[in-house]
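Hi everyone, sorry if this is the wrong subforum. Our group has a chain we'd like a structural model of before ordering constructs, and none of us has done structure prediction before. Sequence below.
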Amino acid sequence: MPALYKTPGVYIEETPKFPPSIAPVETAISAFIGYTQKAEDLVADDLVLKPVRITSMVGYEKYFGGPQPEEKIKVAVAETQVDSQTQEIKAVGKVAEADRSKHILYYAMQLFFANGGGPCYIVSAGTYKALGGLWCSKIYTMD
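Answer:
Right subforum, don't worry. Here is the predicted structure as tokens:
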């Protein structure tokens, strides 16, 4: 149906003969690199240094496991009593900055998906293992 024009005059209407040459696609691809609890496929393939596409936190845990457990947590429990009856019990956990886990990829993924993140790629640099004062599992060199 031709367009209705409000004023008299000459109008040119161009109708495209070809479909659009550029297809709309996503141009941003999220990728995360870090140490993981494990790096293996269900078929026992090693996934270290191999990008894996995941779409949810369940997919992350399936291939890469969970967070590194904190080992030096100190918990202080405070109890408030009134007339020998407990009114409130409060527990506060603390970890010294030097003793905190250095591997935060798991928590980064939790925040990514909690804030609407979609499909992304994960590259495991290795598993959680202590080597001296540094955390790494293997040292890779580029030839």
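For your construct planning: The longest helix spans residues 105-114. Residues 30-70+100-133 form one domain.
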